[in-house]
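Box S2. Input/output pair 1.
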Amino acid sequence: WHFTDQFDLQVGARYSENEQEFDETISGPLFVPPYQVSADSEDDASTWLISPSYKISDDLMLYGRIATGYRAGGPNPGAGFGFPDQFEPDETTSYEGGLKGQFLDGSLSLDFSAYYIDWTDIQLQQRDPVSGFVYYSNAGNATSQGFELILAAVPVEGLDITATLAYTDAELSDPTSGGIVADAGDPLPFSADWTATLSA
């Protein structure tokens, strides 16, 4: 909806259904008779978003966004070795606000955003210490918050310079489940506090 030349509002919704059937047979010298596992999963989800934006000028815009997200669950290959044969969906609610603009006749651009994500039943990758199988399990809840900054400049024709900076604070917020050994406040795997790039 374009309420005025400066103020816009975007809304959206999605409904989805997910069905999976999984059958696996593991055979070999260590599996006599062959090991068989079957797993089925079925779920559905409704997600939505609301995103207003306000143009301060032709070259500068403020925006906000509230959105929900969903990631389907599924079966665990090699299930039955002491870990779950499947994992459940996880869901997010994210809040984001930012500023986008161009300056100096377009030779300098800025993109800044800050966000907060509330994560429910987060899916985490695990490794069984006995069999070595990699599988997924649902932990409790998690949060992720931080900011991202992108600066791009064209000081002279033919030369592009881009710099990025991001900070992320991602951690488990509630007691975990699914056989995951962790405490509230532990950082999420593969999440770096600070990242930065510089390219030309």
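Box S3. Input/output pair 2.
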Amino acid sequence: RHRLIESGAAAPNTRETLVSAEFSSEWHSETTLAWTAQYALELGSEAQRDYESIALTAPLDRSLSRKQKAMEKARTRFGQVDQIGDATQKSESLFRQGELYRELASAIMASERPRDLNELELMQYDILIEEQAFPFEEEAIKLHDRNHRRLLEAGYDQWIGNSISTLATMFPGRYQRQLRWQSWPAEAESDS
């Protein structure tokens, strides 16, 4: 089955079938778990691309509902990777989950505004939109920070580095600091 998928000749839903079969089975090997984690990561990445392609247009509630359903599909796949993946796959999964939330916050802020609002109503609408986007941005920071904290257990990898870079952009006061080393003068020798 793995060779069939790797050859590219498999039907598009073969990966989904194999991931479902592995999670419903009581019998696993390290090899099948590694394949399943990779397939789940690929399926999650595809779902993430679909999610990112959904624009938030007026009326916001309909397009936001579609976007959130697509986001949940990607989150589910990345959650599967968290359960069975190796350290690098888990780092990538956490990074991608953080990006799902960050993209949603950004999409909400950039969403189409109703055209029939006067200037005051538009300002109020913008404040409401910011309030809606804030929890998603906070969740993105939390997930990227969780990935950053994996340095202790997993060591540095590309995905942890990407989370650190993202945190420096989202939360510069904490993560984008210039380090300065200060030397301390040698202690005076005692006259003993």
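Caption for Box S3: The chain has a mean pLDDT of 86. Residues 42 and 77 are 9 Å apart (CA to CA).
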